[in-house]
Amino acid sequence: MEVSADLKSWRDDLASLVEDSGIRFPGESVRAAAEEEEEEVATAGERESLKDQVKGFAEAWGEMVVELGRGLRDVVRQTVLTEDSYAVKRIRGPLAEVSERLRFLNGFLPEDRHPLHVWAVFFFVFILALAGIPGMKESLLEGFGVRVISYDLPGFGESDPHTIRNLYSSALDMSQLADSVGVKGKFWVVGYLSGSLHAWAALKYIPDKISGAAMFAPLVNPYEQSMTKEEKSRTWENWTRRRRLLYYLARRFPKALGYFYRQTFLSGKHGRIDKWLSVSLGKKDKSLVEKLAFEEIWHRNVEESIRQGNTKPFVEEAVLQVSNWGFSLTELQAQRKCQRKGLLPWLQFMYGLPECELTGFLGPIHIWQGMDDMVVPPSVTDYIARVLPNASVHRLPEEGHFSYFVLCDYCHREILSTLFGIPQGPLDTEDKAPINHDEIRDEADTTSV
Deepest of 128, 150, 161, 429, by most Cβ within 10 A of its Cβ? Predict the structure, then answer.
């Protein structure tokens, strides 16, 4: 049955005067439903733009990821981290033993101090300098509010060997040690000679825990590909033939190094440091190593380092130095990194988020280099300064490898002043006489070498 045009017109006029009751006459139900559906689609298309669709999809995807993460976390807590789980039973004992062995260090950490006068913590890393910075007086450390925590690398001294270790595991060891002894907040790392390898690793792998780094004659991989031919040539030409041979063996035939270490460090004899390290010494260094105080420190530290009578940790350190570290020093340079390609930068642009982020180590790096150093040539520091232009390099005329670092009161005061500024004094609040820097300089001129 067909509906006339006049009848349709009458019905349309009536519908315009009253609300839609939902009643449809025969013949127009299908057409009306189609028109309403088309109107709803058009309206929805006008309301929801492409940006809204992307935002809705991203929010839904994010909620799903969060819920998935929470579910996985609950599963791990209920199965792996329970008191009766196999993993917890195996780890609980060793962790308790390590914590107990390191408990004695708590006595060296402050308990309370004003927030504006906080103790800085130095984590000192060097194979044969177990007592921290040799000759640095406790009164000087207290004056600057500094605590030095030195520790043995795996296999040295009383530290247990690590069957498979690298610079990443070294950084994790440092982080776990800080937690074990109750170090709160960030701490400084001090790297001297080969200990700088582990200090570099801390800046790379645990940067959020590091306040800054103090490097003294730091080493790099002499085979580093980013070094120019001139930098490599200037570095290698300063080393003795025996030292070049040791680097070659460490890179190609590391097992052969065991014989060298058995003839030197583990021989039971007290040899001269320059002979045992296969290095030449400058004028000030030669004068220093002949002093009785230096010999006592050197011999005591060697005896403590070889306590376990094993050449393996020495070989491991030599191999670490000439192997691929897993990162380059250029990665430590603070810089803005921007992503230009892919979906993520486009989404960041859509939502007005920043497209760049800061990468690298953002804290201060101080490097002290003796210009008469023949153990670590100044060319090494020149290379570091090139790839880390933000690092502060202190070049020391006429100073050698040991002369500015070992048994030098005035040098130690200059170092701490550079890092921390004016001394804040010890924990007590007693008034003390002001420090006469001119007298200290005159005294240092007569005692330092």
Answer: 128
pLDDT digits 0-9 by tens, 188-212: 898 888 889 999 999 999 999 999 9
Region for 425 from its dihedrals, namely left if φ exceeds 0, alpha if ψ lies in -120 to 50, beta otherwise: left
- The 8-class DSSP code of residue 107 comes to G
Please give the Cα distance from 273 to 280 (Å, whole number).
Answer: 10
- Rg of the chain taking only CA atoms, in angstroms: 34
Q: Which of 134, 135, 106 is nearest to 121 (CA)?
A: 106
DSSP state string for 264-283: TGGGS----HHHHTT----H
- H/E stretch holding 150: strand 146-150
Quick count: other Cβ atoms within 10 Å of Cβ 47?
8
pLDDT at 384 over 90: yes
Helical segments of 155-281, H only: 167-180, 196-205, 229-236, 241-252, 257-263, 273-276
Helix (H, G, I), strand (E, B) or coil at 178: helix
405: Cβ contacts below 8 Å, ≥ 6 apart? 133, 134, 192, 216, 217, 368, 411
Scan for tokens 């200037």, then name that residue.
234
Secondary structure element (H or E) that encloses residue 139, with its range: helix 138-144
Query: 334: which 2 tokens?
Result: 């603070």
DSSP at 445: H
Q: How far apart are CA 288 and CA 402, in angstroms?
A: 8
Helix 409-420 vs helix 437-447: angle between axes, to the nearest 10 degrees?
Answer: 140
Query: Which helix (H) or strand (E) segment is 210 a member of?
Result: strand 210-216
Closest CA to 282 of 449, 60, 169, 66: 449
On whether the CB atoms of residues 314 and 408 are closer than 8 A, the answer is no
Q: Which CATH architecture has domain 123-426?
A: 3-Layer(aba) Sandwich (3.40)
* Residue 39 scores a pLDDT above 60: no
- C-alpha–C-alpha distance, residues 234 and 229, integer Å: 9
Helices 241-252 and 312-322, interaxial angle, to 10°?
90
Tens digit of each residue's pLDDT (9 = 90 or more) over 241-290: 988 999 999 999 999 999 988 988 888 887 788 787 788 888 999 999 89
